[in-house]
């Protein structure tokens, strides 16, 4: 998603500075001390979120300040802090709130979840929607990939390529073009998440025909967001894919979010396949600079070039990074909230990314291996052809039935563009050719 397009966002979280990571460390230690039994990193993170999102540490009175003189320091802790901690523990451990604290819990995140463009705080709830799987296949039917037998690639980590898609007249052409790119990529599982309520049987057939291992799921955008401007495009879809990865306990391989309308260089796949934590690379054709991506010095990511910062710590496009699943699985609160423009940022915050961990790819971020191409979108037309001519006497019957199934065009007896059928440069009545 090109976050950079959402110039009109009203709430802009404060940009964090370079000290953020240091501050995070401090709070993690503070929380870990409070709860010695919480040994895991994530548990500590959770308490850190608790502490920071509620502003707790600021509100802790120091002994001698705002405290009855007779209370000993120890009693003070017993009477105030411990009960408060227990209450907050239960309140904040609800899945809803955990979801809201999907970021790394500093003040920026608190801002990020404020009501915004009609999208309220509940938009960030945990990944717990029902998951509707339409069809899937783990079989790879390709004999040869890039001139080598499939078996030659057996040791490579799998790339989980997540494609949000939605019904419109360009859907099938987009997915077809993308499929013919992915056919060249070994060890890839294509997660196609369609933004509609029901399974589309046409898509089932199309996807299984390519021979690429795939999972097709129906993941509609919640109806309350449909009318929002901007709408969280592709978010329900990506959330469904994240849930699928979680449910399958996949801790091996690499996750990549690849929209259906982008253009992918085959070298991208070799670049992201060895991602250890999070790799990043520039995306072409993003917003005002026609590019978005990391700034790299001495082989390290030091900053970001993107024309729409808006307080984002990670001002990158959805197509500009890949994530290792072993790394991601350490963050059970991984999330992608319904917050247009901030999806990448909040997702990357939810997996605790630090700038020094980012692996620059594509010749130290000098190559463009993915393009944010956009296809012109138009309404599906109605074509005026009498149904009596859409029988088996010509190809037109099956052709229009197929176009209808693909959402490209439909035929009508009474309405729409008059269908001109011609020969030798001359249009004639339908009956002339078809009766
Ligand atoms: N998308 C979707 N539902 C929508 C609109 C978009 O699932 O209502 C998908 C779309 O197929 C694409 C991704 O979300 O894979 C991003 O949408 P789009 O390409 O329209 O946005 P862009 O990033 O180009 O602005
Ligand atoms: Mn797009």
From TrEMBL:
PANTHER family: GALACTOSYLGALACTOSYLXYLOSYLPROTEIN 3-BETA-GLUCURONOSYLTRANSFERASE BETA-1,3-GLUCURONYLTRANSFERASE (PTHR10896), GALACTOSYLGALACTOSYLXYLOSYLPROTEIN 3-BETA-GLUCURONOSYLTRANSFERASE S (PTHR10896:SF51). The chain crosses the membrane at residues 76-98. Mn(2+) binds at residue 261. Keywords: Glycoprotein, Golgi apparatus, Manganese, Membrane, Metal-binding, Signal-anchor, Transferase, Transmembrane, Transmembrane helix. InterPro entries: Glyco_trans_43, Nucleotide-diphossugar_trans. The keyword NAD does not apply. Pathway: Protein modification; protein glycosylation. Gene3D superfamilies: Spore Coat Polysaccharide Biosynthesis Protein SpsA, Chain A. The keyword Protease does not apply. The active site is at residue 344. GO terms for molecular function: galactosylgalactosylxylosylprotein 3-beta-glucuronosyltransferase activity; metal ion binding. The record marks 384 as: Interaction with galactose moiety of substrate glycoprotein. The gene is Dgri\GH10677. Glycans are attached at residue 364. CDD domains: GlcAT-I. It catalyses: 3-O-(beta-D-galactosyl-(1->3)-beta-D-galactosyl-(1->4)-beta-D-xylosyl)-L-seryl-[protein] + UDP-alpha-D-glucuronate = 3-O-(beta-D-GlcA-(1->3)-beta-D-Gal-(1->3)-beta-D-Gal-(1->4)-beta-D-Xyl)-L-seryl-[protein] + UDP + H(+). It comes from Drosophila grimshawi. It is an enzyme of class 2 (transferase). Pfam families: Glyco_transf_43 (PF03360). Its EC number is 2.4.1.135. GO terms for biological process: carbohydrate metabolic process; chondroitin sulfate proteoglycan biosynthetic process. Belongs to the glycosyltransferase 43 family. This is Galactosylgalactosylxylosylprotein 3-beta-glucuronosyltransferase.
